[in-house]
Amino acid sequence: MSNSNDENNQPRNQGESIELLGVIYGIGMNVNNIIGVGIFTTPGIVWKQVKTPHVVILLWLAGGIVSLFGSLIYTEYGALHRDNGGEKIYLEKAYPSPRLMASYLFSFMFIFVIRPVIICAVLQSAAQYTWYMFVGTSPLDGDDKIDPLLNGWQNKFKPYWILKLIAILFLLLITGYHLLNRKLANKINHGLAITKMIVILVIALGGISKYHNNENWKKPLDDNSINTAVNSYPIAIIQILFSYNGWNTLNYSLDEFRNPEVRLKLSNISSIVIVTILYLLANVAFITALPSDVITKTEHFNETITADFFKSIFFDSSVAARVLSLFVVLSAVGTAATSVWSGSRVIVSAAKSNFFPIFSPQLVKWREREINQQGQRGENMRYTEYTPVNALLAQLACCIFIILIVGGSIQVDSFVLFTSIATFSVWIFYIITSLGLVKTRKRYPNNSPFKVPRSIIHLFIVSGFLFIALSFVPDKESIHSYIVQISFILVSSTATDTTATDTTTTDTTATDTTATDTTATDTTATVTTATDTAINTTAIVVAS
């Protein structure tokens, strides 16, 4: 049976149609991808850092506005380049010289740093809520608590390494059912997505019963901290931006939209507005319903704030908090499953472009399996199911390495570490992509049917640079932010060095192949030099 490739670089049976999506479906898809585990974990961190409730709400509102600006920028990209692939396509068009360099660097960082670290952050949160579900306290609280100022090798096995093992078990479970059956995986993921939406609505609406309590709104968490220091904001802002991440999801499925310049704009704007409202309601519920000592009694961060919220609104019932924590765990697993599914397709896409010269032939392979299924009218149906087995296994190995080695070797809270690396990394490319839109407009001045106001592009870029600059400000009580960024630089330096090696290998191969052609050889050498220079420049800029 002949086949082609769909938008996820997945083989599609001949004659299989692509369902054109409407605005409502686009809104649902975007909302589902934006609302992950962040809103169940990060509000306690933000409140602890910022202290003043009104400032907390303003920061969450600002996060929504910045995300809306970014979403509008990507809407123009989608209207101009009606191809799937997101940043990979946009960077390739905006920065054509050296050829594929920008898209190659993004793909490498996305596959080896951004996507797996996001998966690890989500699973770390799932593990913490699982611990709460069985023990009844946060792993950062109690007698046997994790000390975030010690690395994993210095912490006690229980609960530190127990959480790591739980996260890996979830990862094995998710990867396993994606390997077994694609349709089963889709059904499970859709069910978990519904669970996630129910939980966020319960939080947003459940706090209504406590809205008469306004004590927490009258003063900051710490009476002595009327003005929060600037160095308290970086971690808070990182967590907020992490919670909003995913607003560019629809740009990876543009061929499923009819008139994308219209429907993509409506879907993006509506979904960001919906998510922002839900996040504001959830934070208002947390601040109103929870006693302030839930945040202040912990020496570090409260990363199981949703469980404490359930306990508060259900008459201080520990049983209710444990039972309802299960739904947060399921929501987190669903978020991770979506990332595992899409991440494997990105690996296949990069392998098709031969971004990994030695391993590409293996990573690009799909396992084919004939499936017999009974149709709705009782007829027998037969189709071929395709699974990117090697890509899933490579992603699994990368995530396990990050959970155990990277997470266990740095003296910082694992969730904060993973979210900071992922958010910091992806925002570098958001800035580069937004700058690329200015270059693209100059190259194609009249091609785009939708143009975002230039002021929005500039505000988004300035916001990104401010965020990057703030990320290097050390935390006032420790060196969390500094360590987090140093860890990112070490990871990115390793990645870029490997990229340079792989690129050189590819170009050397091309040179050998065209050894009889002096001109081709000289061109290859030039490309190699330009590539190495670009990579080294990127590493220097990041390190600065």
TrEMBL record:
It is a multi-pass membrane protein. It is found in: Membrane. Keywords: Membrane, Transmembrane, Transmembrane helix. The keyword Endoplasmic reticulum does not apply. The chain crosses the membrane at residues 20-45, 57-80, 101-124, 160-180, 192-212, 232-254, 266-290, 319-342, 391-410, 416-435, 456-473. InterPro entries: AA/rel_permease1 (IPR002293), AminoAcid_Transporter (IPR050598). GO terms for cellular component: membrane. GO terms for molecular function: L-amino acid transmembrane transporter activity. Its main location: membrane. The keyword Mitochondrion does not apply. This is Amino acid transporter. It comes from Rhizophagus irregularis.
